[in-house]
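Complex record, two chains
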Amino acid sequence: MIRESLMEVGRINMQMEELRSKGRAEDDQEMLDLSMEKARLLRPCVNLTAEDKVFLARKIERPHIDDFIKALFTDFFEQRGDHLYDDDPAIYGGIARFHGIPVSVVGHRKGHTAEENVAYNFGMAKPEGYRKALRIMDQAEKFGRPIITFIDTPGAFPGIDAEEHGQGEAIARNMARMSSYHVPVISIVTGEGSSGGALALGVCNRLLMLEYAVYSVLSPEGFASILWKDSSRHAEACEIMKLTADDIREANVADEVIPEPLGGGQENPKRLYGSMDMAIEKNLSALMAMSPGELLRDKRRKFRGMQ
Amino acid sequence: MEKEERSLKTVLMTVTRKLAPDYVNCKSCGRRAVRKVWQENMNICPFCGRYQAMSADQRLGLIFDPGSRQDFNSDAGVRDPLNFPGYSEKAKKLEKKTGLKESAVTAFGRINGIRVVAVVLDTRFFMGSMSSIVGEKVTRAVETADREKLPLIIFAASGGARMQEGIHSLMQMAKTSSAVQEFSENGGLYISCLTHPTTGGVTASFATLGDITLAEPGALIGFAGPRVIEQTIGVKLPKGFQRAEYLHKHGFVDRIVKRQELKEVLYDILKLHEDSRGGFAEDIRKGGQG
């Protein structure tokens, strides 16, 4: 089970961080020993089960949208609120440059601490959040900027106000409008992509998934509780749902799987960003060679063919 | 002698069963009435007035002019993309029981003479949930309406996405929403009628994208189920929460329509749009050069 190995690795990471803060160099003997030990622990982290991948996809240390924007984009200008009712902190985005090209970037926001997660509502958006994303994306269409979305959510927020403000309508509207854009749209599932709350940012020309990300109709817990009235059958649900990046690629829903470092992106974020940068660059240049009409037809054809 | 007695008893039992009225119990007030009375009352409880589900046949019978119904794509049955344990067997059982191959029925028909394309989700089949075939049938109905320049009417009733089809079910939300968007861009009229219950992935796709949204009295309409909301936020839900009247009050439903008035209301809306089409709506779409 990857859980135990990663707990050990976490302890080593902390020790290394402590040594670094004391001014130890990377080639210090103690540091070298620790990184050898880390490598030894990570080596068996291959052939992971679907349950392992769900665990990794949700890991709090996993890089999130803030990290991706810092690492992959420049000149980020945040856009706030739906300009109709409120600002939803569960959605984050704005205008930025990718390799110098102005793009609109938007996604679900999760935190690295409990406080951040409470502030961002664990990435569970309300209608205001989806409408904020729509505002950002509509402007991209208006100004001819490619759109890059990052998907990472346990699902849309189930709450009284969310329902009163039209959660269903907000999700449906996003999908409908995204399907009609003439600019390149690339979506990347980076963590957990659960339910319509994920798909509301996922009607794209190219769907990429990080190796340990998952994409599913509902969370495994919700799935088990609906089908078997027993949310504790979570592990079984993970297997049966076929939700891993490889499964989703196999089902012809994802176009490409972006490889992650052993043990998951959090163990070597720089390498992860490198792989993401390459994948985005490759797909974006291919899409930017297409005309607006082709981009529209390409996207419609992709989703029309979903079986 | 003994044999004769037994057969006489069998005959008597059969006759009694045939003559005795078939009863239906109201799920709301628990009182029972003869099935025929129920059906003549459009599945509205004759005692408490609560709306019970209508089958696709009953629904189309209620709105279409007699003899005008013409089904299409009625052969497509359930796919099992995940090889989900027990799914195909359950689908076969439901098909035998209901005569339906999937929960969506799509048909042409006339409403007081106006030709339309209609879709009905039948809750007797997997709670009207959206499978890949349901998504495909809805999409083809939208495309048919677009091609033939006909108004589209969809009666939603659904538990949401069909869990047994996993990601394939989820993708139908995008597929149907995209089709409705294209239909709308081409000037098509889509009337969405939300019936009990409309939830999950159907609420969050084609059901809430109508030009006109109607709902049936008392229908439960929402994205998340009430139980999930209560468990997540640990607060008691307000009275009437997620009911048609509540959505009407909050501005997501244009009108709540009784079954007795449904056909006439649909006709009025169709007529208003038919008359608009002959006017300058076409010119506006062409850029006002008419």
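Note: The mean pLDDT of chain B is 92.
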